[in-house]
Write a structure and sequence with these properties.
The protein is mainly alpha-helical and about 120 residues long. Helix content is about 75%, strand content about 0%. Helix 2 runs antiparallel to helix 3 (about 75-95) and helix 3 (about 75-95) packs antiparallel against helix 4 (about 100-124). The longest helix has 29 residues, at about 40-65. The protein starts with 7 loop residues before the first helix and ends with a helix.
């Protein structure tokens, strides 16, 4: 019997990717016209921040797999975690300026990505 096992990191990235894609789709379909001015800019900054933090997490996972983990090198791991953690925290705050389903999915996305960045720091 052949078993296919997906690494935990890939599963977490997919979990973070689902609400991010849903937020961008909701924004592009109809929520884009309901906002204008500063709220629109803040929401887009938050949604872009969540996407950037998720992309950074993907790069972090690839790097960690390539070097076979950080071991006890906590300062090297924090060089990755600090920017991702702060970007996702600001994404949580900025995405609250949105409206409708895009705000709901954007908030879910930024919270999931924030939790993804807490996991490696907490586990160290």
């Amino acid at each position: 019997m052949v078993r296919c096992r997906m690494p935990l990191e890939i599963t977490l990235i997919i979990i973070g990717l689902l609400p991010t894609v849903a937020a961008w789709r909701a924004w592009a379909s109809k929520d884009r016209v309901s906002l204008n001015g500063t709220r629109k800019v803040l929401f887009l900054a938050g949604l872009a921040g969540a996407s950037i933090a998720l992309t950074t997490y993907l790069a972090f996972v690839i790097y960690a797999l390539r070097i076979h983990g950080f071991g006890t090198n906590f300062p090297a791991m924090l060089k990755w975690a600090r920017p991702g953690l702060w970007i996702s925290l600001f994404a949580i705050l900025f995405v609250l300026a949105g409206r409708g389903r895009s705000r709901l999915f954007g908030l879910a996305s930024s919270l999931v990505v924030f939790l993804l960045w807490i996991i490696p720091v907490w586990g160290m």
